[in-house]
Amino acid sequence: MSNNFILPDNKLIDKFFDENNFNLYYSKPALKHIKEFILAGISKGFSSKTTDIAEYSENHRTTIGHFLSKGNWNEEFIKEIIKNQSLEFSFDYAKNNDEPIFILHDDTVSEKTKPSSQAKSPIEKTDFCYSHLTGRTVLGHQLLTTMIQSGEHNLVYDLQRYDREGKSKIDTVCDIAESMPTPPTNAYALFDSWYNCPKIINAYAKKGYHCIGALKRNRIIYPKGIRIGISDYAKYIQKSDVHLVTVNGSEYWVHRYEGNLNNIENAVVILSWPVDAFKNSKALRAFLCTNVSLDEKTILEYYSKRWSIEVYFRQSKRILGLDKYQVRSIKAIDRIWVLQNLVYLFCTIGLDKPMKFGRGVLEARKHSKREYIEWIYECAQTGIPLNTTLELLNVA
């Protein structure tokens, strides 16, 4: 690109940087690169490729690739901004509105194409992992993600690449639980059956959080002191042992067990079936809640909020290119994920008012277009010829 390329100021991004003290931790060139990534990230058709970022930069894509893979800047500061901003906003909102807090855990796979045996520089740290989305084992990176939700606000808190040579996913979630501050209101960790284990439950209990999670149907419970698996126990449940509840517009037959499980002293287990599938073993779903004071309807409604993390995965892949990157070094890949989540933070609570991510992206795009138009108008007002303006924008 031309060295004369001019990037009009984006006042919202500048304000976001000022409020989070970016200038204290990054040089002007690094700040410029990060700003350009955000501008590219909110643009339509972004896929996290260096060519996409180069559309908003005076630098060639190779320079951007060097910034990601070898640049002298600390991405850990951005990670801390994301964590602190998400925590502060969610906790304040929950306290001021008397709303519960939900910590959501799940993982997804960024699938990549299997490299040729002749490839000289394949993407680093890829591994074969099971994809629940496709129902098969694929090559890629597995991403362990944590989100915080209060009210209608869903904020990304942490994203880590799972490396089977390092900590297990269970231990990683326990570390996150131990790092959480004491919540100002009732708070719940939500997860699927993979993470529903005593180690995570106890880690959260020590910090004042309850847990709600899906249960595998082979988990052991002890009704009236009898040791039995959930699926076998369900065979003895009759219509007189269940009642209907409505959750998010759908009806379910539910049965409540309260007591101990292996390594869990006391909890509620909810067995549920869709209204038209009672006693259908394939339709049976089981959920555990450590707050025994909650009723069945509330437990199921709270667990349904876990769907927000699935929405995050879908939006991040479709809008931010979570799985579309083409850089090959693992350092560059880890940094791209950090910057993608910075875009997510900017579009949720970094604009003039908090909003859902999808709406925030549209608002950020409109603001960016408006500033380009205003800048071009100012060029015209000050007598700068059109050809010069086009050259400055590298579109001559």
What's the β-strand tally? 12
Task: Report the mean per-residue pLDDT as an integer.
Answer: 94
With helices defined by DSSP (H or I, 4 residues minimum), what is the helix count?
Answer: 13
Strand content: 15-25%
User: Unreliable segments (pLDDT under 50, ≥5 consecutive)?
Assistant: none
Structural class: alpha+beta
Round the Cα radius of gyration to an integer and report it. 24 Å
**Molecular shape:** elongated
Terminal residue distance: 11 Å
SSE string: HHHHHEEEEHEHEEEHEEEEHHHHH
**How helix-rich are the residues, as a percent range?**
40-55%
Question: How would you portray this structure in words?
Answer:
The structure is a single chain. A hairpin with a 2-residue loop joins β3 and β4 (about 155-160). The longest helix is centred in the C-terminal third of the chain and has 25 residues, at about 355-380. This protein has helices spanning about 10-20, 30-40, 50-55, 60-70, 75-95, 170-180, 200-205, 230-235, 295-305, 305-320, 330-350, 355-380, 385-390, and strands at about 100-110, 125-130, 135-150, 155-160, 185-190, 210-215, 220, 230, 245, 250-260, 265-275, 285-290. Helix content is about 40%, strand content about 20%. It has a domain at about 10-75 and about 325-395. α2 crosses α11 (about 330-350) and α5 runs parallel beside α11. The protein is elongated and about 85 Å long. The mean pLDDT is about 95. Strands 1, 2, 3, 4, 5, 6, 9, 10, 11 and 12 form a ten-stranded mixed β-sheet that branches. It has a two-stranded antiparallel sheet with strand order 7-8. By secondary structure, it is α+β, with helices and mostly antiparallel strands. The chain contains 13 helices and twelve strands. The N and C termini lie close together (about 10 Å).
